[in-house]
Amino acid sequence: MNYPNGKRTTKTLKLNQKQKPDFSNRGMTLEEDINETNAYYLREGIAVVHKKPTPVQIVNVNYPKRSAAVIKEAYFKQASTTDFNGVYRSRYIDFEAKETKNKTSFPLSNIHQHQIDHMKAVQEHGGIVFLIIKFTPHDEVYLLPSPTVFTYWDGQWDGGRKSIPYDKVQEKGILIPFHYQARVDYVKALDKLYF
Amino acid sequence: MNYPNGKRTTKTLKLNQKQKPDFSNRGMTLEEDINETNAYYLREGIAVVHKKPTPVQIVNVNYPKRSAAVIKEAYFKQASTTDFNGVYRSRYIDFEAKETKNKTSFPLSNIHQHQIDHMKAVQEHGGIVFLIIKFTPHDEVYLLPSPTVFTYWDGQWDGGRKSIPYDKVQEKGILIPFHYQARVDYVKALDKLYF
């Protein structure tokens, strides 16, 4: 479908920000694909990487007799870091994974200032930091190293554009081809870039 | 108080496992002290280490109009990793923090098999793994490197004792003295052990 007035982009962004699942393509979200990949890496002794749990502010808990505690009131908190971190080939790795339905660019509204702050701190301490971006219209997943992310993030406050162009992601990132066992086989891209 | 029948130890363990706060000594739990230390490390550019959020299985969420989503039903899940990880001097670090009211040993029932599995995997991949143990009766905090933990953990299935003796923690671990700004200044111990 076409939305010549540009509404499609706006709608897509809202859906992404609410983190609704994307039922397109292979039937799994990027996050699910990465979780499966991490489980495979762990089983095969390739890397130890986990998704951090969703941060929740717990307000009220019931402790019924003879059964598990039930959280009756809680609220979503904003994460202060990225979603994934772990260790690969003795290095600390840290990344955020985002999908976009945009064809021509990755909107920076998918990331938050505190995540950028975290990514910059990690980079200063010698960690490997990157984004994994899935362009669902192209069915393509890229690993984009942090320096390009920072350039565009900082540039937007300086009159720059509020998105990273698709062709810049192609140029500065590494395409991650789909594999059956490691659905988002990102360590291959890390090998090319950092080792 | 004395419990010559040994019940004191049992009671203490139950309290620890339920993770009730310890209101002894400085009025803060070990976890709170470490969270403050990590915030100080981040501010001062010393290290980037965070506590992982408590994992929660969310079952039911209300989305009221014009206000934040409310989680109405959720359950605590068992964590599949340790509580803290991050990057220090370009190395991946990973640890679990535990308090005990036991004077003479650290009971291994404070740790779980899946945490040991995680710690071993991290060590194999070149990460730095350890426990931070607080003996509240002594008001002492130790950093205990993973090899000693693994020796006692594996030994308990082989007829060994089900706790790590206090004097072994003193011998193999590093005492972390209390500092006003970095309440549990564990990176000093890491400097001695790993750098």
UniProtKB/TrEMBL annotation, chains A, B:
<feature type="binding site">
    <location>
        <position position="81"/>
    </location>
    <ligand>
        <name>Mg(2+)</name>
    </ligand>
</feature>
<protein>
    <recommendedName>
        <fullName>Holliday junction resolvase RecU</fullName>
        <ecNumber>3.1.21.10</ecNumber>
    </recommendedName>
</protein>
<dbReference type="GO" id="GO:0005737">
    <property type="term" value="C:cytoplasm"/>
</dbReference>
<dbReference type="Pfam" id="PF03838">
    <property type="entry name" value="RecU"/>
</dbReference>
<dbReference type="GO" id="GO:0003676">
    <property type="term" value="F:nucleic acid binding"/>
</dbReference>
<dbReference type="InterPro" id="IPR004612">
    <property type="entry name" value="Resolv_RecU"/>
</dbReference>
<keyword id="KW-0233">DNA recombination</keyword>
<dbReference type="GO" id="GO:0006281">
    <property type="term" value="P:DNA repair"/>
</dbReference>
<dbReference type="GO" id="GO:0000287">
    <property type="term" value="F:magnesium ion binding"/>
</dbReference>
<keyword id="KW-0479">Metal-binding</keyword>
<keyword id="KW-0255">Endonuclease</keyword>
<feature type="site" description="Transition state stabilizer">
    <location>
        <position position="98"/>
    </location>
</feature>
<dbReference type="GO" id="GO:0006310">
    <property type="term" value="P:DNA recombination"/>
</dbReference>
<feature type="binding site">
    <location>
        <position position="83"/>
    </location>
    <ligand>
        <name>Mg(2+)</name>
    </ligand>
</feature>
<comment type="similarity">
    <text>Belongs to the RecU family.</text>
</comment>
<keyword id="KW-0234">DNA repair</keyword>
<feature type="binding site">
    <location>
        <position position="96"/>
    </location>
    <ligand>
        <name>Mg(2+)</name>
    </ligand>
</feature>
<dbReference type="InterPro" id="IPR011856">
    <property type="entry name" value="tRNA_endonuc-like_dom_sf"/>
</dbReference>
<keyword id="KW-0963">Cytoplasm</keyword>
<dbReference type="GO" id="GO:0008821">
    <property type="term" value="F:crossover junction DNA endonuclease activity"/>
</dbReference>
<dbReference type="InterPro" id="IPR011335">
    <property type="entry name" value="Restrct_endonuc-II-like"/>
</dbReference>
<comment type="function">
    <text>Endonuclease that resolves Holliday junction intermediates in genetic recombination. Cleaves mobile four-strand junctions by introducing symmetrical nicks in paired strands. Promotes annealing of linear ssDNA with homologous dsDNA. Required for DNA repair, homologous recombination and chromosome segregation.</text>
</comment>
<keyword id="KW-0460">Magnesium</keyword>
<keyword id="KW-0540">Nuclease</keyword>
<keyword id="KW-0227">DNA damage</keyword>
<dbReference type="GO" id="GO:0007059">
    <property type="term" value="P:chromosome segregation"/>
</dbReference>
<feature type="binding site">
    <location>
        <position position="115"/>
    </location>
    <ligand>
        <name>Mg(2+)</name>
    </ligand>
</feature>
<keyword id="KW-0378">Hydrolase</keyword>
